[in-house]
Amino acid sequence: MSYTLSRRRFGAALAGVLGVAALGGCAADATTASSGSSTSGSSSSAGATIFDGGTVHDITLAFDDGAYDAMIEAYLKDGTKDWIEATVTIDGSSYEKAGLRLKGNSSLRGLSGDDSPQDLPWLIRLDKFVDGRQHQGYAEFVVRSNNTASALNEAVALELLGRAGLATEKSFSTSLSVNGGDRVLRLVVENPGDKWDADNFTGAGLLYKAESGGDYSYRGDDAASYEDVFDQEAGEDDLTPLIAFLEFINESDDATFGADLGKYLDVDAFATYLAFQDLVQNSDDIDGPGNNSYLRYTADTKIMTVVNWDLNLAFGGMGGGRDGGGDGGVRPQPSGMPGNRGGGRGGRSNILVTRFQADDVYAGKYTQAQSDLKEALYTSGVAQTVLDRRAKVLTEQASDLVSADTITSDASKISAYFSG
């Protein structure tokens, strides 16, 4: 069965978050690091379970400066994101010949050869050049950019997304050093792929990522027409279900769209997804400037589920930037829930969002989800509990990287949203 948020399932999720407000929500894979790694024991987090949000982990990257310069030059020339070899050390376990490349689109805007590598967004793949290489069952890690020093906004939003009953990415804070440089605090999240898909969905399926330069338009039945529009991230290569879905949401008349959308899309999960983006004031979502979203197709039900990606601008953090400094521009919005979504500041329209909200039945689901989520996450105190726990970890374990005053300030600005 697909990962869906039926009204019954949401009720169970609501009961769970109200009854267990302090639950961690960051379950981790306890498998041992694969062969090819060596443990130095030098890290204070050595032996820690990865994707444990209660620990500030330790990651160091080491690579050839010439290879790095060539990678930056290639990106500046035409946007190519080349892989380079790096030695990646995670909590004292070292992996030579790991893969490293730039990750992101808008987060790389303004990139120049003068940027500090410890501040850049990265995709780490331990198995890029050595098959089967993993750390505690994980091969891929995304080092996220954020315009707050603490990155608390994304860490909290990702956890709340899971509490809402939707597929999310686990995250952890890390002390990152690159080529012996100063250590900086960064947030690391899962990269959706085969392992993530298997962990979050039941049954065989396909996972598609919407590219920032694409959209949800129907471009005919030739798979080549969707190159650089969607990338397939999990499952056997097959764009047929994606193309059929795009044809329906673009070509169906209003009556057919209203009557049959549920045959193509998990409409309850989508209503909750939209309501959640509003709840955390994230304007960089499916109809934002980055086209940030995945589509998961479940084979046995033939249903698509919209999956969240990229919450580093949650809680009003629009403004970008990669240096991790400043207060992040996290600002309270007017109280109450938005009544419509236009993609937010700098956003763009998305045909699925537009048609979904134009339909009275689906718009009603969206409105109900807004109310349900606010009660389950904000009024209940769950969000404050999550925020307090994540902030406490940073204060106790990362005050050498970010001042306690900055952590308190970032947390206070996020907390202001919970009473709106």
Short description:
Helix content is 32%, strand content 17%.
Walkthrough of the structure:
By secondary structure, this protein is an alpha+beta fold. It is built from eleven helices and twelve strands. It has helices at residues 7-19, 65-78, 152-163, 194-200, 240-251, 254-260, 267-279, 351-358, 360-379, 382-397, 404-415, and strands at 37-39, 57-62, 84-90, 93-102, 122-125, 140-144, 171-178, 184-189, 205-210, 230-234, 294-298, 303-307. It is globular.
Low-confidence stretches: 1-43, 318-346
- Give the SSE string: HEEHEEEEHEEHEEHHHEEHHHH
Q: Helix content range of the residues, please?
A: 25-40%
Strand content: 15-25%
**Largest sheet properties:** 7 strands, mixed, barrel
Shape: globular
Radius of gyration: 21 Å
Distance between the termini: 36 Å
Let me know the average pLDDT.
86
* Number of distinct helices: 11
Task: Look at the helices and sheets and give the structural class.
Answer: alpha+beta
Number of strands: 12
Strand order of the largest sheet: 2-3-4-5-6-8-7
Question: Characteristics of this structure?
Answer:
single chain; 420 residues; alpha+beta; seven-stranded mixed barrel; four-stranded antiparallel beta sheet; 12 strands; disordered N terminus
